[in-house]
Amino acid sequence: MRSLLTHSFVHTLCSLSALAVKIPFHVSSSGIEETTPHVPRQSSSSGTVPVGNTQNTFYYANVTLGGRQISVMLDTGSSDLWVTGSVPGAQDTGKSVTLSYAVGNAAGNIHTAPFQFDGYTVQDQAFLLVTNTSSFSTNIHAEGYDGLIGLGPNSGSTIYKKLSGDTGNSAINRIFQQSPSSSNNYLTLMLNRRGDPGNLITGQFTMSEVVPGFENITSQPQLAVEKVYKVTDEDQHWQILTDQGVGIIGPDGQPIQVSSIVPKAPDGQLVVVLDSGFTLPQVPRSMSDAIYGRVQGAEWSTSSQAWLVPCGQLINVTFNFGGVSYPVHPLDVSSSDFNVAFSNGSPACLGTFQPISSAFSLLGEYDMILGMAFLRNVYTLINFGNLVEGGSNSNNPYIQLLSLTDEAAAVNDFIQVRTNGENLINTSQYALLPASQEQHSPETAAEKKAQYEEEVLSHWPYILAGCLVFLVLLIGYCIWRCCCRRKRLAKKKATQQKQGIVSGGGNNGTYAQLQDSGSTATLAMQPMRGSTLDFKHEYAKDAFATHA
Ligand SMILES: *[C@@H]1O[C@H](CO)[C@@H](O)[C@H](O)[C@H]1NC(C)=O
Ligand SMILES: *[C@@H]1O[C@H](CO)[C@@H](O)[C@H](O)[C@H]1NC(C)=O
Ligand SMILES: *[C@@H]1O[C@H](CO)[C@@H](O)[C@H](O)[C@H]1NC(C)=O
Ligand SMILES: *[C@@H]1O[C@H](CO)[C@@H](O)[C@H](O)[C@H]1NC(C)=O
Ligand SMILES: *[C@@H]1O[C@H](CO)[C@@H](O)[C@H](O)[C@H]1NC(C)=O
């Protein structure tokens, strides 16, 4: 069960946050370098932490563990801290853990060491010390980081589950537990865009305060974090609902209509996970097709499992949350950061909104994962609320987003970068094809199977409830039958007693038995619940095995 749980946990989503590294291409080293100067560190309180950026593909920041400064990838989609190399003075707990990421296995023992981040200190932070990186497919150090810090809810931490009590709580959770004001248990994240001459954003991360000049984020709508079922809370992510009917506006200015696979989602809304560990946003296939399928010359790339489009094609996509529009910069909708080419060899740009297949939610917990290409367009605030383990805040967690993309300015940046300053946006070459000529990307057999499994698995609470109702009815019926029989027998007995055939004394036992049947129903629930979970995890494992 343990290993299955870990396996599924790892394979569902959290792990795949490292899909960043799964992308089967290398980022090109050409491209415009960042020109924006770094905002000086604020002298008041803990200030902000600068966020590094390797080719818009990895975002990381420095933490200190055992006195050693380590660059770690910032991942809102997972909840564990792991580092490679050595950590001075680290205490070995003797407990080993393997976290499977697309880049390879992060395996080793859980250690504890003094930890510092953003001016906060935790004396004995638990983390995974990865000593063997031979299974990593890329040199992560060369990509700018030597580990990863999970910024997700504590319930998703494997280390937390492995150690007893609260000792394994995630780093962010530990800092919040120490905080004097639980209403300030939030973090904020701002990611810069390389290769964009108009980018005025500096990558920054903060805890319990906002980046100066962006205070307005606190007056943005508070988007409720969509909670998953209690029994699967290891799969809880920072997920929110899109606006009803108009959640995503496509390149033709019309809403893209896709139904949610999440049984709990209200009609016309989609469940979106915000995950800074994904380079490419993962969206339903029909949505990816609606974004790129009407572009002239668009080509589906089997090797990249993504659309390729001409780099000069401006593609307009806008997300709506809480009644606010969040336009996506056209430089983010198609990316020149990857060396991709059309089948005829001419250079192409990669459609960043990739069909969700390897990160598909088998339990139907979310519809899409908005990674870095989306997150660059918003300043993100995540208030952990009652998801802080051992915290005193009883409020529900929420997310606030402040748009960072000015549409008109973005169009100008695009023209400068992609068509050498020549405005070709409205030329016939770049006109969208009519909807009837939209191309569709091929669905694999494995995907069809996964979708079928999702249909069954995501409805398991309802199936379980149905079974329980049936069971209760069945037991009720049995009790009723027994009662009737007993009554009849009792009547018979009474008659017989009257006739002096049988002596009394069996009545107490009869009562005890009756009460017992009540608790039999309760007991029956336990194994059923357990086996449902086993089924789920085995299923998840099986389905994901094909992707591993
Ligand atoms: C991390 O610290 C090193 C050494 O001080 C520094 O060179 C690097 O720029 C820092 N990284 C970030 C993302 O701030
Ligand atoms: C490191 O892990 C690989 C498999 O991932 C294994 O083959 C190798 O023996 C390990 N090396 C050490 C020193 O443990
Ligand atoms: C911040 O919000 C106030 C009030 O909503 C508004 O007047 C102001 O223009 C906003 N500033 C920015 C930078 O968005
Ligand atoms: C992009 O879409 C938005 C929202 O539909 C629209 O307001 C805007 O005019 C569009 N921009 C371009 C360049 O098509
Ligand atoms: C394209 O045409 C539309 C409608 O005529 C206009 O509103 C828009 O500004 C034009 N876009 C550019 C980038 O010139």
UniProtKB/TrEMBL annotation:
InterPro entries: Aspartic_peptidase_A1, Aspartic_peptidase_AS, Pepsin-like_dom, PEPTIDASE_A1, Peptidase_aspartic_dom_sf. Keywords: Aspartyl protease, Hydrolase, Membrane, Protease, Signal, Transmembrane, Transmembrane helix. Gene3D superfamilies: Acid Proteases. GO terms for molecular function: aspartic-type endopeptidase activity. The chain crosses the membrane at residues 460-483. Belongs to the peptidase A1 family. One of its GO terms (biological process) is proteolysis. Residues 59-392 form the Peptidase A1 domain. Residues 1-20 form the signal peptide. Pfam families: Asp. This is Peptidase A1 domain-containing protein. The keyword Membrane applies.
